[in-house]
Each structure stands twice: as structure tokens, then as C-alpha cells.
Amino acid sequence: MIRRTAFVLAILAATAVALPAAAQSTPSRGPFTVLLRSPETLLFMDHGSIRREGAIAHVSSFIALDEASLQANSQVAYMEMFNQFDCSAVKARTVSGTGYRRDGNVLGDTPGHQDWRSIDPTSPNGEMFDVACRTGRARGETLTGGNPTGVAASFRLSARGS
């Protein structure tokens, strides 16, 4: 868990440093469900983003950071990852990511991976694969906040109180 959190924070830091800010906000979608929660990060998926093109499913997921991590990572409050799943081959890839400020404005974009990878069925990718390609039902709790900016803000408030 600690290695995964450190890896996520490294991605967020690289995104914030390498890319120019843009003046647009993330759209409101949802519902959102928890894929993974730690004291520093919340990984959640956006059910409203799911779409299929033949055997390929597209799903957005988000990583929200607690206040200390936000301050240490050039103001990246959360990051959206654009994931693809090959429903026939049971493979996944993250094709790109977008970093957002606390107010929901875009901080910058980063490329993902073009190579397809095997999916561990017990991982967050395994759950997103199941939802997008099989059952349509998530295993995690449903989040409140109305949009990714609100969910990230709620997470920072709850993390502060822990």
C-alpha cells in the first residue's frame, strides 16, 4: 500500500511540474465509488464515464490527495486517469491523466501507457474491469460530493479529522 501511494504521489508531482495549467474544470458526472482508500489517498471510479466501443471499455478513475500531500505536490488536489479495458483479452491500460487544482481547474496533462497489461482481479483495475465489462456493479462504497472536486474536498476534510 505504501509503495502504491508513493508511486501515485510521484506521478502527481511529475504532472504538476511538467505541464502548463489550463483554465477549464472537470465536468460533473458520477456516481462515484471507492476503489482503494488510504490515509493519504482515495482512488475512486466514475460510473458516468463508462462507455464501450466493441470489446474496448473506457473508464475514468480519480486519485484524491489529503491536505499534506496536496501541499507537497505542487497543488495537485486530484488526478483523473483515462483507462481502457480490453474486455475480450482481459487487459488494461491507462492512456493519459489530467491533474486538477483544489478548485477543479486543470493543472496539466500527462501521457499514460500504450501497452496493454494483465489485470489482477483483486486490484482496482480488476474492479473497474468487472464494472465496465461484466457486472456493471461496483463493490466499493458510493461517494458523496456530486463531482470529482467535491469528492476530493470531502476526502481531505475526512482525512484531516482522522
Explain this structure to me?
With 162 residues, the chain is α+β, with helices and mostly antiparallel strands. Helix content is 30%, strand content 35%. The chain has 4 helices and 7 strands, in the order αβββαββββαα. Strands 1, 2, 3, 4, 5, 6 and 7 form a 7-stranded antiparallel sheet that branches. A hairpin with a 2-residue loop joins strand 2 (41-53) and strand 3 (56-65). The protein is globular and about 40 Å long. The model is unreliable at 1-26 (pLDDT under 50).
Topology at a glance:
Blueprint: H1 2-18, E1 32-37, E2 41-53, E3 56-65, H2 67-72, E4 78-86, E5 91-100, E6 106-111, E7 117-118, H3 124-134, H4 148-161
- Share in helix: 25-40%
- Low-pLDDT ranges: 1-26
Which structural class do the helices and strands define? alpha+beta
How far apart the termini lie comes to 18 Å
Total beta strands: 7
| Mean pLDDT reading | 82
User: What does the main sheet amount to?
Assistant: 7 strands, antiparallel
What are the secondary-structure elements, in order, as H or E?
HEEEHEEEEHH
Q: If you compute it from the alpha carbons, what radius of gyration comes out, rounded to the nearest whole angstrom? A: 15 Å
The shape is globular
Number of helices: 4
